[in-house]
Amino acid sequence: MRKVVINTLICLVCTAIIFYLHFAVYDGMLLQEPFFTGSICAVCIVFALRSNIDDQTYTTQWNYPTAFLRIRLYQLLWCTIAVSIPVILITEPYHFEYWFALTCIVVIALISKLHLKTVPAVPVTVMVTMLVTMGVFLLAVRPISASNAEKLVKQAGYTDLYRFKIEFSGTFWTTLPDDTGIGCTMPEEKDPLGYYGFRAYKDSEKYCVVVSAARGQIEVQEKQGE
């Protein structure tokens, strides 16, 4: 029972940290597929709760395929990894879920290759791998957080800021909660993570200010008409 509680708590803490970073720190910019990530977290939590089942049951199920099938699965797995690495690096270097999928495949392959008996710990391993991968991803990409984006806009001389969701398009327009409209022309080069949009004032004039999440700089400062 103690193992169940510890494994479940680790999975819950990792899940809480990941989604706190996504929603609170980066205002929904970090995960491009939050449902995919949430589904993995939910599966890991469920399996962690079931980790009190006899280890022999897991071991029997883990070793069930024939040796021939295992060899073919290993070959397919490593071929997939070899193909995925250059594709990920070239096409989607800012997609966290792809990096996690890659590292998770490697970790699970190592667990299988080493014939580890502690299969109930696999959900915990997957969750810790996800958290570590996110940490490395943040260190490598260094996206600007929502609070730092707000500080950047204030340093540019703007006041009375209101942050809103912004979608990339040639011309952006949205309606704020106070029923006033705001819009601007978006930059031609798309940010790989997304943008923070701000309604701000400078010299009593209303502006639409757009901050790039990945590049960490103000991309648009467009005065709003009357």
Mean pLDDT: 82
Class from helix and strand fractions: alpha+beta
Strand order of the largest sheet: 1-4-5-6
Shape: elongated
What is the ordering of alpha helices and beta strands?
HHHHHHHEEEEEE
| Strand coverage percent | 15-25%
Q: Termini separation (Å)?
A: 65 Å
How helix-rich are the residues, as a percent range? 40-55%
Low-confidence blocks of residues? 52-65
Describe this protein's structure.
- The protein is an alpha+beta fold.
- The protein contains seven helices and six strands.
- The protein has helices at residues 2-25, 34-49, 55-62, 67-91, 96-113, 122-141, 146-155, and strands at residues 159-164, 171-175, 181-185, 195-202, 205-212, 218-223.
- Strands 1-4-5-6 form a four-stranded antiparallel sheet, with helices on one face.
- Strand 5 (205-212) and strand 6 (218-223) form a beta hairpin.
- Helix 1 (2-25) runs parallel beside helix 6 (122-141), helix 2 runs antiparallel to helix 6 (122-141) and helix 5 (96-113) runs antiparallel to helix 6 (122-141).
- The chain is elongated, with a radius of gyration of 23 Å.
- The N and C termini lie far apart (65 Å).
- The relative contact order is 0.12.
